[in-house]
């Protein structure tokens, strides 16, 4: 299949502001873990947990509770997240319009997120964004394909897309998106409205930065034209 005109989007911090649901569900899970184990693991304030948005959850949970308690932590997290936290979320202003412009220009759009794939589909369906994407790719329930480079490798192979920075662009707000794109040989645009920030994205090697979702179509066009 031709790789012309492919734009791959991260989800959390790029398409939607999912911070409240993720952090509240994490604090809930820490409380439940303490209740059931008798431990007294500190429960940080939400403002101290921003670091965990972006990388695979199991990795960040390991830093909070240790490797041995990651799976119980995941279970407690999902108690709240699957029913409440998933929808403590909001689409960034300008995202639907940007996706429509890209689609109207003939670009094929995909999602590649470290979030559980089933959850990603529920979020995108709930907010009316799923219709813009040819397919949605995310992490598996056992944590497989949670690393962005692994997920992008799988996506490119599954869709038979040739990795080409002139035609394939990853858009994301964290260094993991940029590093993942670089690892598989595609271009990367840093989304400055998300959770990473200019310094993080630039240091990771983003090919371009966009300050708002409205700038994404022109940034994609300019980047691919320059690369071609």
Summarize the structure.
The protein has nine helices and eight strands. It is α/β, with parallel strands linked by helices and 228 residues long.
Could you characterize what this model shows?
The chain is α/β, with parallel strands linked by helices. The chain folds into two domains: 6-17 and 89-227, 3-Layer(aba) Sandwich (Rossmann fold), CATH 3.40.50; 19-87, Orthogonal Bundle (DNA polymerase, domain 1). It is 44% helix and 15% strand. The chain has nine helices and eight strands. Strands 5-4-1-6-7-8 form a six-stranded parallel beta sheet, sandwiched between helices. Strands 2-3 form a two-stranded antiparallel sheet. The longest helix is centred in the N-terminal third of the chain and has 19 residues, at 19-37. 43% of the residues are buried. The model has no long low-confidence stretch (mean pLDDT 94).
């Amino acid at each position: 299949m031709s790789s012309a005109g492919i734009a791959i989007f991260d989800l959390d911090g790029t398409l939607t502001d999912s911070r409240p649901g993720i952090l509240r569900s994490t604090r809930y899970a820490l409380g439940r873990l303490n209740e059931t184990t008798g431990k007294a693991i500190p429960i940080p304030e939400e403002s101290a947990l921003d670091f965990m948005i972006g990388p695979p959850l199991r990795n960040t949970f390991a830093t909070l509770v240790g490797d041995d308690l990651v799976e119980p932590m995941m279970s407690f997290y999902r108690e709240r997240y699957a029913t409440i936290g998933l929808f403590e979320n909001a689409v960034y202003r300008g995202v639907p319009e940007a996706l429509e412009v890209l689609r109207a220009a003939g670009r094929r759009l995909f999602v590649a997120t470290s979030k559980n794939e089933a959850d990603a589909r529920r979020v995108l369906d709930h907010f009316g964004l799923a219709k813009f994407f040819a397919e949605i790719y995310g992490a598996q329930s056992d944590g497989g394909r949670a690393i962005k480079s692994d997920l992008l490798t799988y996506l490119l192979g599954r869709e038979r897309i040739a990795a080409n920075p002139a035609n394939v662009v990853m858009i994301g707000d964290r260094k993991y998106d940029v590093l993942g794109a670089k690892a598989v040989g595609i271009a990367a645009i840093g989304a400055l409205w998300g959770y990473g920030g200019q310094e993080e994205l630039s240091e990771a090697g983003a090919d371009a930065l966009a300050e708002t979702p409205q700038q994404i179509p022109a940034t994609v066009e300019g980047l691919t034209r320059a690369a071609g």
